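Form 7-S
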Amino acid sequence: MADNNHSYFQHPYSVLTGILGLEQKYYWMAFPLGAIYVIALFGNDVIISTIKSESSLHIPMYYVLYMLTLADMGLVLCTFPSMLGIFWFNFKSIAFDICLVQMYFIHTFSATESGMLVAMAFDWVVAIWNPLRYGTILTNGVVWRTGAVILTRAVCVVFPVPFLIKRLPFYCSNILSHSFCLHQDVMRLACASTWVNSLYGLIAVIFTKGSDSLSILLSYVFILRTVMAIASGEGRLKALNTCVSHICAVLIFYVPVIGVSVIHRFGKHLSPLTHALMANAYLLVPPVLNPIVYTVKTKEIRKKIIQIFVQTKITAEG
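Output:
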């Protein structure tokens, strides 16, 4: 009878942990964490507004960057409320259904960002392989349709995940490991077999990030072969230099993704602090570092930032 009673009971709330062992320092950690969020929001907002306002940037390469930045902004806005609640107000409870919604959007935006990195890689392939036909192969319409396909793929692939979680009983524990809801973390609290969830999660990862990382790798193999065929060393260096920002964006995204996946599957013996830091890096590193990389590499974005600071200084002095 106890088991039957359990089957009808679900915890209405989940408890977000934050960072175990550092609870007494949350108030002080809130300031650097808030600064990180401000940098991410400001940096991504500058890129979005610059691409929208500068007609010279209304080309396929920057439209893909625009969509990548929107995905980064989505990740920031998904996690900001729960992180702020924990570190500033020590508010750790989150309704289970809200947790599933947050989980859905986190994984959807993450899959979207992965797809946008593939679109960027294809953009560089076309630009280096056949620059004379670049404008006819990659039109603005093609780029926006590609973005719509990438978003649709992410939405559809992640859509069953909350429903697969919802069918499971959660009467054993409701304490999560992180400051936000991730699929692997929520799934481990279930009091029943999760092989269906694990299998679908693996298929979803292979279909999105797995196929995307392979596509990016093959793109760069093709790019390197094309670049090595250029006669002059200066020409090869110039061609490779154009890809630096994209290579940085790929590393910034995939290194934390691989790290958090490996730790969830094989790092059960590691400290909770390691798990928390890797999960935070997975969601915060790309939105913070991508704007910095593209600001360094894009003159128009640098000019926009200087313009904002000058206007702020004039307003403050006035």
